[in-house]
Amino acid sequence: MKSVRYLDNEPYDGELTWRFMGLEELSIGNIPNLERLSREEGEEMFLSMSCFQIDRCPKLILPLLVSMKHLKVSNCSWVTLKSILNLTSLLCSLTIYRFANLQELPHDMFNDINTLEELAIEFCPKLKCLPEGIYQNCWHLKRITITGCKTLNSLSQSFQDIISLQSLVLQDFPKLNAFPYGLNHISSLTNLSMSGISFIGYYTYTCKASHKLGALPEALQHLPSLKSMTIECFLELSSIGIFYISTSSLPGWVGNLAPLQELHLKGCPDLLSIPTSIQQLTNLEKLTIYDCPQLDKQYEKEVGADWHKIAHVPNVYVGPDRR
What we know:
mainly beta
């Protein structure tokens, strides 16, 4: 496939155009010199294509795809990412996956795509930051997942522009030194998951705590819709400040998260206590504390010294991960 520059790879004919017009889903991979989908591309060529997966096609430039809703781009190049600008504003979900050398995203890649609802950036180990203002037109963005971006140190300060965000999932982000300004403006956020799971390659990971989480952002206490929060596999979980200090407790303001219904603490070996303010969470329905050995006896059902702090929660599990 090394010589293929176009998918048709033959002179243009009307029959091929007709076939492309009815195409709804397309997955292509390992075509290193592919430049375009067709020798003669036009708005009428891919009228029905709504789902497209691209893998290892570093020279491909995306054409105008008027019906495109779901796009996954893997192991490609800056050239391909930049051409996302060619898509129309129907795009709902975008996954950027396994870009080994990607250090930054095109700052204007979402300028004309204001229908985006899901964004996943996974296993881009050299990605250092997200461009300022990248979210300014993402009014409908509901879910963000960032996984295995080991050098990422900033999530962009334009988080306050994501007025519809419902879910934020962060995994394996050891260099992230601060959460973005404006996090407290995301009134629609219902799910927050932060995991220090360390991925080894793309498909395996270790659940052993290997990252430090300096502190939970204080802005979280002002989120009016947060219903589920997961904190997983962190060392030295701190209660205050933004640096890696060793006060191994959740912050007292956790009690201000009045809408919270589920709280999951997993694999945090240095976590020594849960603040008394958790008793203020009268809507809390489920509390799981997996593999936090310092808490096992302290919060053992009905006999632990601090069991009274969490006795009001209907569904509680404290102990080893039983999944």
